[in-house]
Queue: 3 jobs
Job 1
Amino acid sequence: MSTVTKHVLVAGGGVAGMEAAGALAELGHRVTLIEKDQKPGGHLKQWHALFPDRRPADEVRKYLSRRIDNRNIKLFTGVSVEKVKKQGHDLHIELSDGSALTADAAIIATGFDLFDARRKEEYGYGIYDNVITSAELEDMFNAGRITTADGRKPSRIGLVHCVGSRDEKVNNNHCSKVCCVTAVKQAVEIRQKLPSCEVFCFYMDMRMYGPYYEELYRESQEVHNVNYIRGKVSEASANINNRLVIKVEDTLAGRPLRMELDMLVLMVGMEMSQAGTRLAEASALGMGINRFLETGDHHYGNNLGHVKGLFYAGTCTAPMNITDTISHARAAVTETVRYLTTR
Amino acid sequence: MEDLYTRLMQDVRFEEGLNACMNCGICTGICPAAEYYHYDPRNVVDLVQTRNNDIIKELLRGETIWYCGQCMSCKTRCPRGNTPGLVIMALRKLSQELGYFTESEKGRQQFAIKRVIGENILRDGYCIASYHVDPKAHPEQGPAWEHYYTYLEDSLARLGGELNGTEGPTRRISSDVLEELKSIFKVTGGQDLYEAIEVASEKKAEEMGLEFRKEGTDFEYFRHVVTADNGNHQTEEEDVRREIYEARR
Amino acid sequence: MKLEGKKRVWAEYQKEIPDDHFFYVRSCIRQTFFAGSEQTFLKIMRDDLGKDVYEDPRHTTCTGIGYHGDVVPFETIQTVVARHFALATEAGYKNIAISCVTSFGIYTEILETWKHFPETLEKTRENLFRATGRVFDLPVSISHASDIIYKFRDEIARKAKYNLVDVSSGKPLKAVEHIGCHYAKMFPKHGIGGAEFPHVLVGMIESWGGDVIDYPERRHCCGFGFRQYLVQANRGYSLSASRKKFESLEPYRPDFIVANCPGCAMFMDRWQYTLKELDGITYGSNETGIPTLTYEEMAGLILGYDPWEMGMQYHNVQSLGLLKKMGIKADPAKRFLTKDGSRLPEPANLLNS
Amino acid sequence: MKGSTGNRFGFTVNRSRLIDYDASDRLVRDYVTLREPSFRLCFACGGCTATCTAGQHAPFNLRRMNTFIRRGEIEPLREEVTRCMLCGKCLLVCPRGVNTRNVVSVAAEAIKKLDRNEL
């Protein structure tokens, strides 16, 4: 336990922010945790189950709630951090409610926004009734009801990978990393909940980079009969029966393919959050060409900001899964403590 | 042999049309040609980006590049900002400049397009005008067109035009304007392309033992190129040939 | 279907269309097959809307069919288009109004090329000067002629003599809109409503009382394909693509099809005849075919123009049923007349006659 | 003038190369999957095609054949299954342990049954 108590601000109460706040508080530091939503938890609040093992998201939520249940942490919700400025040895921090505070160090953990699927106009999200996002499918899992807009039980569902990722048309050349495995996880869940429903994943590459991801992919084929078609869906439309019609090339057959579906799920990717972008612009924090925060060194200084005393944690720096986000947050805490003790 | 990829890069449309393809197939998924020909724009772009001279030469000599209909639907959606349609246009231009187009059935058709559309432009100032579309050669135009064409002068007059008039629809383009057009074609390489098509076609006609004339459309070779159909344009033969070829290398 | 979603897209793709003073360039295909449509556009602009539209008889084809038929090099077509800009410059016009969608796509492509590769603009200036001694200013705006009708659609609605409504039932007519590929697929931001949900014809149809059908093959090409129609051996491609659209739109029982591209309007009419002859298929209610209109004809009908003076009889699928539904009294016996009213023989085998 | 089509237009509606998933059926796939369950494991790496001896000399592509089975595209399958020499080299390379050789045999069997309306 550190002997000198310092005050650290954590901007963002999602997975990274909660873990960082918890770890700092555990070491005896005073933490102010700022969350823009009414409740902490970030995107995890919406998720039903997690890849690769489909454990309930609630288990991780509970862990994180316990993590910030510490009297050293002061949580403020419904308010966001708008600007961070170096002032002598301290950091001067401005909040969206007009108040300001001073801290010895700060960790930015403003996270990501899900890609706005309306920007991929060819898929008709927000126009055709049964085009939904991966997040909305989680809502359905939470509600225990997977149905079309008019309440029918779907007999065929398609999942489109890389929506808003790897696509210069929406100015995102980066891979969001987690969508492939999310698609596989959701495909398996659909097959388990609706055994008569056929499921198709439309992918360009299967990026099963994490432990047990490839195994899940294999299980999805071997046990759950999930279908995979290699090709980026070109467009979706609705027919007279209000079923969706998609066009895609089956690149492994080298021929165009057409298929009717009851539901199309868009695996929306990660973008730097709007709140984080605002903060970065106001504070002149560098952003990379992918618009996430640029770190001090992408190999060995991946938690460092360019301002002394300012550290980064989680998906404000790049897309990552929960495991990596928690590790990244802990690493940010290590860097913060080193800074505070050697300053 | 001259590096064909370098030649292609000199075409601004090629530079614009080809970045790096990741073979997602979004182009082929909505390509009208992919449905009715053995055609896969994704594959064409992937072959070109190998920068392999032999592969590009095969494309220039083959049927594949002539299947595209240039609707440019591929441009709208490519996540890498490529335009396979523009790549095709650059390949077609080079194929004609090098005379390779006569090696394929679909490529040989360029002669007919030059003789009809190409010459309409310089002779009349139109790609196409009512008096060019003879219902006998265009039965698909149907009875409405046959009637319009038969009574062309009357039909046009009722709609506010004048056949061989000086203004309005399908007016006669004056000779000084046509001289300007010809001059533009001379200065910009249009005339050279026309000549390249003529020279290679005449050579091919001789090789095939078909009658060829320096003018018009009423002779064996012309009729041959507009009607010939070997029935193989939807089969996988091209693919097979390429696979064997690549395997040998 | 959620209309709000479409409205959001439409709001995103609005472009500046000038109010007046246009330099009009004709279309090879439109003046050949729909001469009355171009004349109707000019009449609407000049007589109904009081606009200044200038036409220089010295303008020629843009060579677009030759360009997309691959016998005309890019350098050549750039220079031909530059010559049209020179004519506009000489006449003091800065707004180009383009009849043809292929031309519109080419003008757009050329201006974009000149922007991204400035050396091509310089080369074109040099080429044009060497060939013709002409110089040109870049236009301030280029609009497709349908953009301009779109801009004035509400003014036309206020002057409307007829609406896209079935007068006997009071219900809106059901329209299929078809947008030429080169209108917005290459450069979505240059098309009203963008590439995925173009609003240019939808806006007209809705302003004039009709309903629009959204069907699965809405965005598919009519199948012109340039060389794919020009050469007889390839025409199956062209026919097949249109058939794919007909099969997809048929279940919605549309009252008519309208296109902003001259080629598309022509093919979607001609192929209905060919499919009937080849395969015995006739689309539309009572299997009489689906009338295919140009947007100029549609606008003309709204303003009370005589359908036969616009040339609507020169479609294989006749519009008598449609006209009746709209309450337009047009004597079928007056379809095939000369300018001074003498009767020409009637063609046989028209659809929906 | 008449083309090879024999009609007065000189052309006809073209045959579609589109894979229309709603027009085809998956009888052959289901038969193959039932009798050779490892078929489900193929993830289209192409190892089989690369090592295939028959594929060096004839247009045979096992990886693509698997795709056709999955999509219910029977016509291209008919010829494909006859081209395999059943040497089994592909078995050695498959990273997913698919009994590739048996997939071909079972698919050939399924087509025969399909033609006799026994599927």
Note: The two ends of chain D are 47 Å apart (CA to CA).
Job 2
Amino acid sequence: MSNNGKKKRIGLFVCHCGVNIASVVDVERVAKEMENYPDITFSTNYVYMCSDPGQQLILDTIKEQKLDAFIVAACSPTLHEKTFQDVAKLAGLNPYQVEIANIREQGSWVHTDKEKATQKAIKVVKSMVEKVRANESLDPIKIDVNRRAMVIGAGISGIQAAIDIADHGYEVLLVEKDPSIGGHMIQLSETFPTLDCSQCIMTPKMVEASRHPKIKIMTYHEVESISGFVGNFNVRIKKKPRYVDEDLCTMCGDCEEVCPQVVQDEFNMGLSYRKAIYLPFPQAIPGTYTLDIDSCLGMWPVRCGRCKEVCEPNAIDYDQKEEIIEEQVGAIVVSTGYDLYTMKALGEYGGEKYDDVVNGLEFERILSASGPTGGEVLRPSDGKVPKHVVFIQCCGSRDPENHNPYCSRICCMYTAKHAMLYKHRVPDGNATVFYIDVRTGGKRFEEFYQRAVEEDDVLYIRGKVSKIFQEGDKIIIWGSDTLTGKKIEVEADMVVLAMAMVKSENIEDLLKKLKINTDESGWLAEAHPKLRPVESLNAGFYLAGCAHGPKDIPDTVAQASAAAAKIGDLFAQEKLLHEPTIVPVNEELCSGCGICVPVCPYGARTLDMEEKVVKVNEVLCEGCGACAAACPSGAAQQRNQTDDQIFSMVKAILKG
Amino acid sequence: MENKKVKLHYYPGCTLKEKTTNLDDSTRKSMEILGYELIEPENWTCCGAEFPLNEEKIIGLAAPARILRQVKIEGEDKVFTVCSFCFNVLKRTNEALLTDPLKYKRVNAYLKDDIKINHETKDKTTEFPEYEGDVKVYHLLEFIRDEIGYDKIRSMLKRDLSNIKIVPYYGCRLLRPKGNMSIDEPDDPTIFEEFLENIGCTVLDFPFKQECCGSYLSVSMPEAATEASYNILRSAKLNGADAVALSCPLCYYNLDRRQNRIKEQFLEFMGMPVLFFTQLLAWALGVEEKILGLDQHFCSPYSVLGIDDKSEVKI
Amino acid sequence: MFEPKIMCFLCKWCTYAGADLAGTSRMKYDPNAINMRVMCSSRIDPQHILYAFKQGADGVFIGGCHPGDCHYVEGNYKTLRRIILFKPMLEKFGINPKRLKLEWISAAEGKKFVNSMNEFTERIRSLGPLMIKDIALNEEE
Amino acid sequence: MRIKLKRGKKENDFIERVNELSGENVYSCYQCGRCSAGCPFAFEMDILPNQMIRLVQLGQQEELIGTKALFLCASCFTCQSRCPKGINIANVAEAVRSLIDPKGEDHCGPNEIPVDLADELPQQVLVSVYRKFSK
């Protein structure tokens, strides 16, 4: 596009880069030959264009020559495109009126034939003239920010992120699908490598979150749908009926006593029982009973209704209905956590057939002072104290053939902790660990592992177990000791499987709503594996905790705080700036075929059924141009890289 | 015609023709009752028993491919076996021909040179179609589950087997190698249990159901094989079984015929009856006792089936 | 010796950066190819390729990120599909599809970029010049 | 006893041949020992299945000569069904057997069959044992 029909006055500055360019490319000839190229009103060369005098030369020339645009033939645009755009701004030009011709990295440095390299440089410069001639002046797209955040999942990562964001001074919605916040961490007994009690450090965090004036806790809520974009999300949240009024419930427990329905207790991993109306655990937040409708006999008074009868404060309300709550937020933290891989998948280990073969979280509950055994180590089948406990690492981890390819990272450490805690509880018992490698790459981890071996007599056997079965009241384990080259058979009283960590069950639905990508194992994908580890590629979404991949508590907390800090960065901006080189639609040309709509990976394009044209959300468009290539009518044109620009550049390169 | 029999190709394999006629006879009789007329592929040979594990020993695929080609020539697209070894070799041959173009080419190059002579007319056949690996190979357990259906079996039961407390023994070849070769999950199989339940047996769990019996090591390393077999029978006993059900003639040899060796090596061993699944099927379908060939067993299975033991007590 | 003209479309995030790396590593290759930087390989429309051939390119090279590495999630898969579908059409136009090449080159693969350039230049050299007058596109725009 | 580790042509060729004949990649084994843990005949073996793979990884053809373990494999595939890397260890054993004894001596030929057993042995056991352990 020309400037209001007026021809652009374009300047050319060819850089010598000392001898880096000039020794191969005849820079003077480039400048000279280009003098007569259409629209070039000024052409020169200089030894270091990026130096202060070089920049001053450009600045002065723009003013003297009244340039509308200019080209710097120099190094790769990744190095100094920004430098020269700033020069343009200083001179009052729009930065999109600057183009760089790369004649160093893709010119002088890779070629030896001076004549050919010079000819190539001229062609590259010509193509950039063609481009800049049609460049539009653009301003960044500015977006308002709604300075409220939503955190999905209230385990330790979600709670930490919520507290940090709230401490920045922003409002936070903390959404949790379960009746209480706390996640898996509140289930743990003691934590490695310090052996401090998990509930003792977790409960204050939970209380802090619940008391924080900027945090709104929404337990028993699920995200129903999300629309909008970074800074401006509209969220619909489903409030599941609890059938108990949170504000009225005094946690007296009368309802629980009369409830006739008994089901397995999830908090204790099914090792104990709860009623259909229940408090998940004593420290639950919010402190209120919840009626689990799937287990309830039915709420018509004719069928049961006993809980309602005995409830003194009249907190039980059978008429509660599902509600949809709409909220507006500017950023979202996804901290949906993990689950353990199912033991059913390990048929050779009995696949949940044997009561005394338990997974790591079950053993945490057995060890926990608040657990079903009150902290005594008793095996589930007969309540006896197991005298020999075998721990098996890498159950379902590091097994690309049959299970999960990755290392679950925390099992080495929690197995050492389990063995140690077992020995502390049962000093005359034996703890044996089967391992492949012991990975202790955290602060004070190796010392902890060595302590288990040296001070607590935990026997480590290097070899993966092949089979577990029951014989009488003993569990038989077939393993091998690869260090001596012997097959090992152990008779144990109890077996603890360090099951792999896997993505949360049924998380796919939520992720589809959020449009967040995962890796092949279902863990949330970060925007860059090294440089952007807490952001999603989808702008406005941040990752924290094990939803992103297996990690221990300190790493989880660090990532949660990092996500909160990133949100602080986002909210500190007055307006969000967005690259304007997007692909709008020329509604005159658009036939409404809709081909570009599914091509867009960001959902930025929608077909307006009434007007029969495609509408573009400029904020969502990242400017890849895939839609422009797909558009059959030419209505979708990328700003400053239109088809016409590409054609004229190709022509300049090949015919020039 | 109500009693019209369905024709079905059946590959018995060598061992069934001589050493384990009880397996062959009970299979034939049961299938007859279930409405099938069994046809053996003409001029069948040994399948080779062991599938060649060496990528370059392709000649071992020629015999099973030839057998399957014959089924194809006779106009059929499926064949069933009861011997686990034959099942494994035939099925793996198909897999190799379907997935490995080089093996396909070389096997068919061998088979191209076949000459078939009709000894009566002295006619020679030298033209054969290529074999592409497309005849479906069933084990009878699979065929019952997928084609006959347990409902039909249950509707035809004549005897009550609920007093028989039995464990299924899969062995290796029905379950492994894992993947396409396996008739069920290698470490969590249920097909054999389902079969036994549907013919009315009381089925017990048994952790050694997929352990190896020692296979051909009973020739080269007899003590090792004996110990392996003993462990299986011991576990069956510990889990409360009256008998072990199986499908493989070699497992049968190791677990039943060699119980005298087990007894020598492990003095406390008291014997454990072993039955082919087809014997149980035939018995449940009301077949008379003499067809079952129970007298061929080393460890008497009569009492398990509730028959007065007419043979001498061997253990 | 025949010196082919080669038009390269390189994605900004991976292949263009790989070409820069070849430069900073001072690797050498033939100057027959001239690069155009695009945001994503999926910006390239078959029209652009045809146009390049029409303007006298003897070969067209497209460089994108490795599968799974696309800055725009999946643009490279779109490119791959388009190129696969487009190649038979090129043949109908009388252009040997070997004159069009799609390659995945990351920002770290300077060496691969150089090798691809040399190989592709050599391939086009052996195919000889594209006889524009013989093909269906031969009329002025 | 020590192994002098060489990574010359001879050793590499041996590993390459094992991979070719078995159709597996012995390099992919990370020595977890699960094959040995589940092998029904490991209790009789002088070296365990994972050690056999290890010796192949080290290129030690000579060390494998005379190992009893190679002739204790019943091809039951328990190892293969549980190997976290999906290695078909029975195939590797078969490849090693054929490479350490290329001249072809019978490990278990017709003469080894006990006379009293010859009558009762099922055909398939004879066919399979010859196929495995003789040339």
Note: Chains C and D do not touch (no CB pair under 8 Å).
Job 3
Amino acid sequence: MAFNKAQQLATFSRVWYLFDAKWQCPHMSGERIARILRGEHKPIYYPGESTGDCVIAINTRHVALRNDAWRSEALHIKREYAKTRYDIPLFKLHELDPTKVLHLCVLSCMPSDSIRRYDMARLYTFPDDAVPVHLIKNVCDQIRGSRVIPKRLDDLTPNDTKTFPQMFKWPKELVLDDLDRDKFVRVVPPEEIPKREVMLGQRAGKQNYWFHVPTSRHEEVKIN
Amino acid sequence: MVRLLRYGTIFGPLKDRWRYLYKRDLYKRRLEAGPEPERFRSALINWNYDAELYACTHRFGEKLNIESLRNAMTDASFLKQIVKQRTEAGLAATDQTTLAFTHNQELAKQGKQIAEDFLQKALHYWYPKFPQEGIEAITKFLLSESTIADISSGLGFKTLIRCDIPSPRPTMLTNALFAFIGSINENTGRSRAEVFVADFILTHLVGKDINEIWQVKNPMGLLTKVLEENGRQAPESRLIWATGVSSVLSTYVVGVYSNKEFLGKSAGATVSIAEEMAARDALRRLFETDEKRAQIPFDKLYKKGLLLDK
Amino acid sequence: MFISIGKAEINISTTFNVRANYPVRKFVHDNVHHDMEVQQLYTKVNNLVNDKFHQRLFAVIKIGDEQRKVTTEDIICKVDEFHPTIGDRIRFEKVLLVGSSDFTVVGRPILNPHFVRVEGIVIEKTLSQTQMEYWYAPRKKKVGARNYLWKDPLTMIRITNIELLGPIPGTNQSSSR
Amino acid sequence: MSQFLRRITSLPIQSIRSFHSFDEVTPAKYISTRLKNGVGSRYVCQLQRLTIQVCKEFRTSFGTRDWIANDLIKFAREHPYVVVYVQPRRHRAPNLVGEYLAGDRQWIPLSNCDREKVNWWIHSLLTQKGDPQWRLLKQMHTDSPSVQGIWTPFTNKPIDRITRTYPDKDLTEMEYPQITATQQIQELFEQQKLNKTS
């Protein structure tokens, strides 16, 4: 085999990346993955050519979204036919398919031209660590996360809280919330829970949750 | 601008029917008659052999006299043809007058010898670490008939050579070029002939890779032999990279090391190919004939004064 | 001046990397000129420069306000008028960058002619293919559309020689001081 | 003779119909030379033979006749490596045929060209390689495209990737994590302690 053939094989080889999506923001990591799938991270990138690399995204179930994005953000599916207009909130979508959130973020970061389909086909998403052996063998590099993984409150050891420097002293007369809410819990009898009336027509797509999900506007979600 | 729609043919838009039929008939006759027989360039009117030879002497900046060039350009088959024509014309073999010119076999032998020596010297000087078999393989490739035939047809000897058939065969072309080198050697001296060889035969290597001309059957075996000579340990190959192992576009990058020192690396679709190419790459780096090697200074070989003393 | 050795880049004019919003480790601290480590770098690069036999050099050249990366034995094509005829040897003045496999010297903006010599020879002067420009002006009675045909004169130049004539400018003084 | 700018060329038989304007479809080539011309110490002019067919009487070859009368000797003396044949052909259009070393031929009709234009065409034949009018796919030609090594996905990657088993723990964090608020407070606290102790 000639030297230049070996060189061409090396230069145009398709590199397989692994991405651990635990605690990562799908939007920021979606931008990185889209760039790698299109091959724009290579100096030999050319729009006509498919110089993209493959990416295996794991732990997409543990993706972290900002603030109350799980509830307020939604997947809008608009079709011309009736009854196919859906506004699925992300938490519902996550239940249906844990890998879909990251997939949609990468899809939105890709320019919507004809080869997007083929580039997206090079993205393999898995909800947990379980990856088929023949795929994990291909991996040769790992994409680094795009945010610092925070420490959960229940992971804090009492030692940390003690050593953390005291910024200021609480005033003596301050009363922390010592109300014991469990006492005032009332179990709602089933007959009181509002039934979902089946509504047809324009409201059909929107009215499928017993709590109000303002998908377009940002409002407080009233949970009773 | 309204354009009339007209019938059209390969001869252009159809104006008159009789013209179209006439041309179609001519075309059919041509196909039946077959291509024109090949003719000697000297058969055409605008041909003057002395002027051509005079121009040829000036073309390459070599000061040759016309007679030696005429000898270099005449082929043995041309002389045979003359003798045959004379015998047909009834002249007995004895009283045929000797010709003013001779064929170019001896000059060709001389030229080939000069070219061979010079090429060996130049390659050995510029690639000192390259083994002798490699240099011989390269000189054999450079002096092979096909290469020399291309070179001489590129120098315009195709029409200048006098031989029995219109387009000279590769052997005639090679003889002509070597005879030309021999005649330079006679007229102006060996150094001038060697500069000619450097400018036209050695430059044939410009686009080519030395390591590919010399096909090494078993690169790893050769590598072990070379390392033993240098007193280093046997080569080991390690996998440096492997992507897409189970996919179709799999790439392995294998590196060759001896006693933890890096020798060479290369990529391949499978591990065996990558290893073999890595061995070739290691050889290339050991012999210092890889891309970062400077190009052969074709015109400065003598200015560097390195070839004269050898 | 910016000298890069293989992978490690020595940024002589140290500038804080504005784009990165994180503290960038400085490769080279400020008073760098007379440091011992940089002296070795200068001497190493100068030795590489003298070793003429084994280093294929490449250069970036500006010709007819186009920049070309050239090595020896390669052909560049200059499009428009170019005075020299076939067989003329040219020396290129505007050399922006010179390098080999181990070092790269970048001029700001061009390198000193006493340091670098890049020569070429004119091989061929031909005409380009026939190029056509179609022009259309609506509502014009006499001539509404026009085809403008031309051929550009092309000149092919082969690069014959790239040489470094001396040590890298600016490095020998500091070593001698 | 220097070849001055000739942007507007009145090509003898340049009709729109014969012109093919689709750039992608026109025949194209890469730059190449015969026999690595120019690499060695000498340059070989590719034009071998030049045949000028001219009519002594017709008006169309007036320029060709002027050129032959005035410039032919100077041209032949300047370029001894080119064989020039002059063919007087009665009542025919003037032509220029250039034959090149590699055997290519170029034919240029000279009807109604004046002496200066004939000279220009002859010099364009002289400086050519033999097959002009190609669309160039690339403006340059190199045999050694890269000296420092062509980029591969592995050039700028750390070498330890092959030894790791994926998913790898320490490759998941950010490469240059920003200093979070808690870390800043802890650093300030340590500094305060240091200042107090020192």
Note: The first helix of chain B runs from residue 17 to 33.
